Amino acid sequence: MDSVPVEFIENVVLRLPWDYKNKRYVPLGKDSVWKAIAEKTEALKTEIYINLNTKKNRLSMHVFPNNYFDKYFCPGSRLKDKVTRRTIYIQPCDEKGYVLMSEDQLNTVLAATTFTPQLQNLYIGTLKSWKQPVAALIQRIRGNFGDISICDSRKHSMEIERLFVNCLPLRAPSNLEIYNSDITPRTLDLIVEHIADFNKAYLKIYNNSCRFTVRHILRIMEAWERKPFSVQIQCELPFGFHTLVELQRPLARYFKGGRYGSLSQWGRPENRIDQLPSGTHDIFIVIMNFVGVLPPVY
Asked: What is the superkingdom listed in this entry's lineage (predicted)?
């Protein structure tokens, strides 16, 4: 194992978790070449937080554990390869402790970190009015996001649609939450088109300007029938339906009996995805109203 190329070892080390509490890397052996390279590589590993204050329209960045932009992204620097995670915040915020960025620097970071060894995170929140700089930033974002959260965001439905056009083909997130926001029907179409890629994922999509239709739910079931996958979706009743019993009729082909407090692969509607045995393929669609999950109907 010690005879493999150094570059290969570095790439493996970048994908290993970092113990922030104890400030150490995952042990790779006391005297191995792997350990020596890991110690060197771990000192260079970093995470980037891009922050856009939507009140002050000021862009800032924090690089952990080092906050010098040029060290990582100046021309010729290979340190950008050591960026393990990128987190983007677009919301009102306190900028203390952050380094202000220029638009050119932002473009450099976005281009250099489209893919990172560890999954990225994106949070968009509290957009009350349409703003050009925010809209432009959202449309430029691409990445292998493991977590996407969009809440209380208004007037940017087309930009959010573009975000999903850019990101879903790269990777479907493990956690996706959209609520109290303006979205387009096409955004929901995109999510359904890629639903089979959301394996063992949690989707919470409710109280938005658009909601899932019966056709969307049927398409999810048709995709599951072609190739089973595990996913939990929290959403509202489609427009035109007032009770879960009404929704049973168009879904009767897929769901037989069971409880309509949650729609699932009937037989185990009470299970959560993270409680299912390894290898189990399940669908878990929870129908919500504005105050929580509707009670079971027998």
From this structure: Eukaryota
Q: Over the chain, what HEC string results?
A: CCCCCHHHHHHHHHCCCEECCCCEECCCCCCCHHHHHHHHHHCCCEEEEEEEECCCCEEEEEEECCCCHHHHHCCCCCHHHHEEEEEEEECCCCCCCCEECCHHHHHHHHHHCCCCCCCEEEEEEEECCCCHHHHHHHHHCCCCEEEEEEEEECCCHHHHHHHHHHHCCCCCCCEEEEECCCCCHHHHHHHHHCHHHCCCEEEEEECCCCCCCHHHHHHHHHHHHHCCCCEEEEEECCCCCCCHHHHHCCCCCCCCCCCCCEEECCCCCCCCHHHCCCCCCCEEEEEEECCEECCCCC
- What is the number of other CB atoms lying within 10 angstroms of the CB of residue 207? 15
Write out pLDDT tens, residues 140-199. Answer: 999 999 999 999 999 999 999 999 999 999 999 999 999 999 999 999 999 999 998 887
